[in-house]
Design brief:
Helix 5 crosses helix 6 (about 180-200). It contains six helices and seven strands. About 30% of the residues are buried. The chain has about 210 residues and is of the alpha+beta class. The strands form two sheets. Strands 3-4-5-6-7 form a five-stranded mixed sheet, with helices on both faces.
Length: about 210
């Protein structure tokens, strides 16, 4: 189900359906060692994370027809160019950007929440669930997308999963994930997370 704005802490990627905090997809992947703490200059790391967030926001505004190009940071322009090229090459259709982009969702069955980048139709492919990246696509992206898919309590397993790398040169690189075993590993990661909570090794949301 979709979460209300007041149930989402944007800055800290925390989710609280009905006022009760639940783990996010990122929480689970960090707790189980799939996402590692980045090393290096904290300022540079913060910039890369912010760049990704800004690009996500700009693409959403572009799709809704409300992007102010005059106010856009020029450093984001190549990533938007890559996005537009991907759409042109694939024929991607996002029918309702407000509904199908940057939506925070919660699964009652999984007791898990997360924010999906986008869901759309590509002719000849079908329904696609994707996550845009402004840096190299990491190996854990396949599990991230599997968990995002499992947030759909009614019809999981019906999407094609895609990690879309938007590059600084205006090009893109698609990474398609077709191994169904990703879902088994993703479920085991969630089980491991709740085991850690049960053993008092971490708190929910940590």
């Amino acid at each position: 189900m979709l979460l209300k704005p007041e149930e989402v802490d944007e800055a800290n990627h925390k989710y609280g359906p009905g006022g009760v905090q639940v783990p996010s997809v990122t929480d689970v992947l960090k707790a189980t060692g799939f996402i590692h703490q980045r090393s290096g200059d904290p300022t540079v790391i913060d910039y890369y994370m912010a760049r990704g967030a800004w690009a996500h926001k700009a693409i959403g505004l572009l799709e809704m027809g409300t992007l102010d190009w005059a106010a856009l940071d020029p450093r984001l322009e190549p990533y938007l160019a890559a996005w537009k090229l991907f759409k042109k090459d694939t024929g991607l259709i996002i029918k309702n950007p407000v509904r199908d982009m940057e939506q925070a969702r919660y699964s009652i069955i999984m007791n898990l929440a997360g924010r999906l980048d986008w869901v759309g139709e590509i002719p000849g492919v079908g329904l696609v669930l994707a996550d845009n990246k402004t840096g190299p696509v990491q190996g854990w992206t396949r599990l991230q997308l599997a968990l995002y898919d499992l947030l759909d309590d009614k019809e999981p397993y019906r999407v094609h999963r895609l990690g879309l790398e938007l590059k600084a040169n205006g090009k893109y690189q698609p990474h398609w994930y077709r191994d169904f075993d990703d879902y088994n590993v993703a479920r085991q990661a969630l089980s491991c997370y709740w085991w850690q909570v049960g053993q008092g090794l971490r708190t929910v949301g940590g």
